[in-house]
TrEMBL record:
The protein's name: Hydantoinase B/oxoprolinase family protein
Pfam families associated with the record: Hydantoinase_B
Organism name: Saccharopolyspora oryzae
Record domain Hydantoinase B/oxoprolinase: where: 5-524
Signal peptide: none
Length: 529
C-alpha cells in the first residue's frame, strides 16, 4: 500500500505543529525571563528510534542533538526502562554536549501500550549551584560548574520523584524558579505526549509509520541533491578564539576541513586546540550539532529538519580536543568555538558556493551577567543576557544589523522594561553602533551599543569574544569592527575588558558594551551609494 502524498503532508505538518505547541507550552509556563522572554530553549518530537519527527523554532545549536539524551538513556538502562507517565532529565556536558545549565527533559510516548516516540525539550536553568551564581567565567573543572545529572527519572508513573526533586532543589541557589522551569518542561513533554497521541488516534500506526519513512526519504533525497551540486573537492578555513578565559594571552585555533564526494560531505573538526583549562570546551555531541547548523544554513535552509536531514553528512571530532572534551574539562562557555566553527564552514565552502556564502557574523553570544542582592526585594538575583550584533554581507545584500548570533536562532535579549523592572540596574543607552560593519560592495551589518548604570552594588561577569578574529569579509570585503566593553568609560578609572568573573561593581558604575559588526562582501570601491 502506497501512502497518499496529501496524507504524508498532513502528518508532516502535524508533527511540526506539535513541536511548536510544545515550545509554546514551555515558554508560557516558565518562571524565569531567560526562557519566557529570552526563549533560551528548543523542543523536539522523536520517533521510537530517537530520530527527529518535528522540531520547533528555537536554538539551532541543538539541531539533531536532543535525541542523544533519550538514546543514551536507552543504551545505559536498556529499552525496557521506558514506562508510561515517566519523565527524565539530563544535563551532563559530556553527553548532551552543552553546559550544565542546559537541562534536557524528555518523556517516552506510548500508544496502546507500545512505545511510539519521545517528547524532549532543552532549556537554560538560571543556576545549577556553580561556584558563582548563574555560572562561572573562570571555571577550570566541571565540578565547579554545578549539579551534573546523567539520565535521571524525575517523574515515575505520572508522580514526581520527590527525593530527586528535593536533591535538585537543595543544590541550586534559586530552587523555586528552577523547579518552576523544570515543571514547565514537564508540561511541555506532556503536551508532546498528548499531540502525538492525538495523531495516532486520527491515523493508524501503519499509516503514520509509512508517512514517517516517506518524510525521511524525501528529506534525504533533497539533502543529497544539494550536496551533489557542490563541486567535489576539499575545502578548508581556520580562525582563532581570543582565549579560554584563564590564559588570556593564548588564542585557540579552530580549523574546519570539508570533503565533498558526490552526494556525501565530511566535516573534519579534528584540527583544533586540545581541551583547555578554561571553560570553552564542549562535548562531541554539541560539536556535531554545530557542524550540522553550518551545513543546514548553507546547504539546505529551506528543508525542514527531521530524521533524514543529515544522512549525507559525517562529522569527525577528536576526543580530548576543545570540541570533544573529556571529564573533567570545564564547559560553561562551550558555544564560543561553535559560533566560530559555523562561520568557518561557510568560509571554507565560499569558493564553491559564492552565491550562498556570507561573510562572518559578529560571532558570539557576548554575555553580560549581573548577580547580587536586590535592594528592592531583599532577595538574591542573577540575570544573564546575550547581546545582538552585526551579521555578514552576502553577494546581493548587506548584512543584518542588531541580530542575535547564528548559534542562538530565536533567542532574544531582554526587553529594557523587563530588565529594569526585575533587576537593580538601568539601561541608559541602546542603539546601533554606526559603521561597525565591514566595508564592501555589500556592507556588513552593524553591532549595537548597550549601556548599563548600576543601581546597587553587585557582581559583574562578562564573556565576550572575537577580538582576535573579528568578522572577516569575503571576496575583498573588509572585516567588521571588533567588540569592546568598558567599565566607567570616560573616567580616570575606565577599564576595558572582554571577560570578567564576579567583578564587584558599585552603585553608579557604568558599563558600556559595544558589539562587533559583520564582515563586508566584495570590493568597497564597487558599492553604489
Amino acid at each position: 500500500m502506497t501512502i497518499s502524498p496529501v496524507t504524508t503532508e498532513i502528518i508532516r505538518s502535524a508533527l511540526i505543529q506539535a513541536a511548536e505547541d510544545m515550545n509554546t507550552t514551555l515558554i508560557r509556563s516558565s518562571y524565569t525571563p531567560t526562557i519566557y522572554e529570552g526563549k533560551d530553549c528548543a523542543v523536539a518530537l522523536l520517533d521510537r528510534e530517537h530520530r527527529v519527527l518535528g522540531q520547533s523554532s528555537g536554538l539551532p545549536i541543538f539541531l539533531g542533538n536532543l535525541e542523544e539524551c533519550s538514546r543514551r538513556t536507552e543504551a545505559e538502562f536498556g529499552p525496557e526502562v521506558w514506562e508510561p507517565g515517566d519523565v527524565w532529565v539530563l544535563n551532563d556536558s559530556y553527553i548532551g554536549g552543552t553546559h550544565l545549565n542546559d537541562c534536557t527533559v524528555y518523556a517516552p510516548i506510548f500508544v496502546a501500550g507500545e512505545l511510539v516516540g519521545f517528547a524532549a525539550s532543552r532549556a537554560h536553568w538560571i543556576d545549577m549551584g556553580s561556584k558563582d551564581p548563574g555560572g562561572s567565567m573562570d571555571s577550570t573543572t566541571i565540578y565547579q560548574e554545578g549539579l551534573r545529572m546523567g539520565p535521571t527519572r524525575i517523574v515515575a508513573g505520572g508522580e514526581e520523584c520527590r527525593d530527586v526533586v528535593r536533591l535538585i532543589a537543595t543544590n541550586v541557589r534559586f530552587p523555586d524558579v528552577t523547579l518552576g522551569d523544570m515543571r514547565a518542561q514537564i508540561a511541555c513533554a506532556r503536551m508532546g505526549v498528548r499531540r502525538l497521541g492525538e495523531l495516532f488516534a486520527r491515523y493508524d500506526a501503519a499509516t503514520i509509520d509509512q508517512a514517517r519513512q516517506e518524510i525521511f526519504a524525501q528529506t534525504e533525497r533533497l539533502e543529497r541533491q544539494q550536496v551533489a551540486a557542490i563541486p567535489d573537492g576539499s575545502y578548508e578555513a581556520t580562525g582563532h578564539l581570543d582565549n579560554d578565559g584563564i590564559d588570556l594571552a593564548e588564542p585557540l585555533h579552530v580549523t574546519v576541513r570539508i570533503t565533498v564526494d558526490g552526494d556525501r560531505m565530511t566535516i573534519d573538526l579534528t584540527d583544533c586546540a586540545d581541551q583547555t583549562t578554561g571553560p570553552v570546551n564542549c562535548g562531541r555531541a554539541q560539536a556535531i550539532s554545530a557542524a550540522r547548523v553550518g551545513y543546514k544554513l548553507l546547504i539546505s535552509p529551506a528543508v525542514s529538519l527531521n530524521g533524514g536531514s543529515f544522512a549525507p553528512l559525517d562529522v569527525e571530532v577528536r576526543d580530548g580536543s576543545m570540541l570533544g572534551a573529556r571529564e573533567p574539562a570545564a564547559c560553561q562557555y562551550y558555544y564560543s568555538s561553535l559560533g566560530m566553527l559555523i562561520d568557518l564552514i561557510v568560509k571554507a565552502l565560499a569558493p564553491a558556493m559564492p552565491d550562498r556564502a556570507a561573510a562572518a557574523s559578529y560571532g558570539d553570544s557576548m554575555i553580560v551577567q549581573f548577580a547580587g542582592d536586590n535592594p528592592r526585594t531583599g532577595k538574591p538575583f542573577v540575570t544573564l543576557e546575550a547581546t545582538v550584533g552585526g551579521w555578514g554581507a552576502w553577494r546581493g545584500g548587506d548584512g543584518e544589523t542588531a541580530l542575535i548570533n547564528n548559534v542562538n536562532g530565536s533567542l532574544c535579549d531582554l526587553p529594557i522594561e523587563v530588565f529594569e523592572t526585575l533587576y537593580p540596574a538601568r539601561v541608559t543607552e541602546y542603539r546601533i553602533r554606526p559603521d561597525s560593519g565591514g566595508a564592501g560592495r555589500w556592507r556588513g551589518g552593524d553591532g549595537v551599543v548597550r549601556e548599563y548604570v548600576m543601581e546597587a552594588d553587585q557582581d559583574l561577569s562578562l564573556w565576550w569574544e572575537r577580538s582576535v578574529t573579528p568578522a572577516w569579509g569575503l571576496d575583498g570585503g573588509r572585516p567588521g569592527t571588533a567588540p569592546r566593553v568598558v567599565l566607567n568609560p570616560g573616567t580616570e578609572h575606565a577599564r576595558e575588558m572582554l571577560k570578567a568573573n564576579s567583578l564587584r561593581v558599585r552603585r553608579g558604575d557604568v558599563l558600556r558594551c559595544e558589539s562587533g559588526g559583520g564582515g563586508g562582501y566584495g570590493d568597497p570601491a564597487e558599492r553604489d551609494g
